[in-house]
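Justification of resources, computational component.

The compute hours requested in this renewal are based largely on the per-chain cost of generating structure records like the one below. Each record pairs the submitted sequence with a full structure-token output. That output is archived, and it is also reused by downstream analysis tasks.
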Amino acid sequence: MEVSYSFFILLLFIFYMEIASKYQPSEVENKWYQYWLKNNFFHSQPDEREAYTIVIPPPNVTGVLHMGHMLNNTIQDILVRKARMMGKNACWVPGTDHASIATEAKVVAKLASEGIKKSDLSREQFLEHAWDWTDKHGGLILQQLKKLGASCDWQRTCFTMDKTRSESVLKVFVDLYNKGLIYRGVRMVNWDPSAKTALSDEEVIHKEQVGKMYYLKYKIVGEEGYAVVATTRPETIMGDVAVCINPLDTKNAHLKGKKVVVPIVGRVIPIIEDEYIDIEFGTGCLKVTPAHDINDYLIGDKHNLECIDIFNDDGTLNEHGGLYAGMDRFAVRKQIEKDLIAALLMEKTEVYTNKVGFSERTDVAIEPKLSMQWFLKMEDLAKPALDAVMSDTIKLHPPKFKNTYRHWMENVKDWCISRQLWWGHQIPAYFLPEGGFVVAQTPEEALRLAQEKTNNTKLKLQDLRQDEDCLDTWFSSWLWPISVFNGINEPDNEEIEYYYPSSDLVTGPDILFFWVARMIVSGYEYRRKPCFNNVYLTGIVRDKQGRKMSKSLGNSPEPLDLIRDFGADGVRMGLMLSAAAGNDILFDEQVCEQGRNFNNKIWNAFRLVKGWTVVDEQEPESSKLAIQWFEAQLKKTSTEINDLFDKYRLSEAMMALYKLFWDDFSSWFLEMIKPAYQMPIDRKTYEACLGFFDALLKLLHPFMPFITEELWQALEARKEGESIMMQLLPSDTEFDLQILKKFETSKEIITGIRTIRLQKNIPNKDALDLQVVGMHDSSFDSILEKICKLTSITIVQEKSPDASSFLVGRTEYGIPLLDNINVEEELVKLKSELKYLEGFHKSVQSKLSNERFVSKAPAAVIDIERKKLEDAESKIKSLMDNINNLEANKN
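The structure output for this chain reads:
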């Protein structure tokens, strides 16, 4: 027996020595991530279990990790890991988006640096460069996500331009066209002169800009006078075709039926009338430029006016610009102001602030432009998607975004789905030699349709010309929840039937319409059901000053540097502690430091426990009670965490776990059970402690996967292929509420005793007696005696004269002090406190004696002052009693 026990102690010592003195994330994270990959823990296949599905919001294929990605993917990983530990078949599908505008811009810039112009290349040559760029830089962000601990099913990685997704996109385009929902026509669109493509309304960001209001003089034909027109865009006068007034405008009534001359240009244009014109704006005269303003376009269409497009696709003026042809639009604005002043055709200018639309991608001012584009009719498609959210069939978290969603969907416009780009899904429309077009998924099908349409079987494929434009990137990503399971091409396949609809979507409110709403639309159109059940909307990550993070401001930390400095778990925890759903996150690196400190706390607690010597001795009563209490506290907190997860309040769930481990487990439970210095612990208590540690690690794992795996593996001998991530979370939620209530009282008693020790400078090693005046539950006395080093707990009618006391509820607890304090020093301290309180009492009494104060102050303020007086009187009496008792004992 003696030999076996010594051998056990030796093994324990060796095992303990293997636990590093300090947690080193860099040594742990890659080891366990490779272990998870090796054992295929992230992979999912349909089976008999309940499915839990998340599809990643696909980042730009050539993008790199930023703080928004860190937050979004941390939340997704938490949800997936928890679902996995609840016994669900968790599937997190990763992937990337081809990002037409952003990627093409990077490729064009790269070619320019090599002296190559896009215009010098054929489409096929350009796409070769684009694919080379994508192959070289693409997917980096997914590799970076692995550093964060993302447990994606990497075998399922998708790309919006891979074969399956591309086939899905083209099939949907053809289907919607055949249903009469896609059409082609000339419309006023938002034109991006930098990317040289049309944009949807949702891709335009309106910014407040300080500019000028220009008052231009249009000479009245046949008269000496002028019609003065106010405009913010004098550079567009070359496209003017009329001046419009309101027929009810008396100040401009003299202009009715007349004509005016466009300044500088010299073109004669009519004065027309329309009630659309705001009489109070500017001079009441509006220059009508149908090709370059949506409202002017509507007026021009109504009055059958000509459209003169004065801009090239890059924002320079074309041949209609006259003297200014070839100049950039903003350079023309500056020059034409000078020219109008020189020609005495500028009455005045004023500083003017208005909102200007900018391209969301290139941050260039957009240009309203008439253009032939492809559109998707949205009104009828939007109805089921609107109803789904408003009825909570699909729940938005937080629900405050429902009103924003409703506003968008009730005012939805047809979606401009074509883009004047080469990188993307080329529109499957084929133009015929003699006019018209056909729409088909493949060239071969297009040829067949063309032959049928023209009754010409001799037509060949080379006779057809495919539309040069490509589809809006969102037209592929709106199918994402379906297409990742090939549900468009094979609508009845096993995977789409099993994994669809997905459980949760985690994304930002800035793409609620761009992406979320459109996915819901496609879900109802192609699956007749919602595409997901819940949408968790994160906030925007800002710096601690509230500014949006950007490279230009230099306020965006490098995510991989944060992981290097604080560990992935530290960064994940730091983000979650400050990330309430839907609220912007004011990020400060100090929260990552807090996360790192919590890692160290967990590590050190583990080392402490594993360092204890274990013996087969009887379990102390204090340890038995401590185990009963913490078991109840653990179950109570587990129940709260489950409820918080159900409400998508993950930040609060993280905080509850933080408090459970730091406060309840480390500060209270371990203090209650830990053996005296160099003394052993009984086996029953030790095993219970390890059991609690096991449960805590499981609860923490979704938030902090790396350290929890490391310690769970070290908790006891594990087999190859075992992992904490595949364990089930504690499911027993029945707990003893009474023991929790009783222990809260004991906590107050312990805190009161510790306060007296601190105030009286009584060392922790000195034993104390505790006197109780009133009702006292002795259930936790063994814990009070151990933690507070009490030699006795005595019920008394009256506490000792030298006792320092405190109240818990209506019960008074006292600690006799004569043997533990220096009476002279204590008297000096008490008299100093008494002097201060008497002065305070006098000042409050003086205030309440002031009739002016009492007559004018609100009743609530007077009540507060009276309460201050009562409290001061009570404290003065207590201090005087203590002073008298000490002086009596001194004598």
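Residues 259 and 270 are 4 Å apart (CA to CA). DSSP finds 28 helices and 31 strands in the chain.
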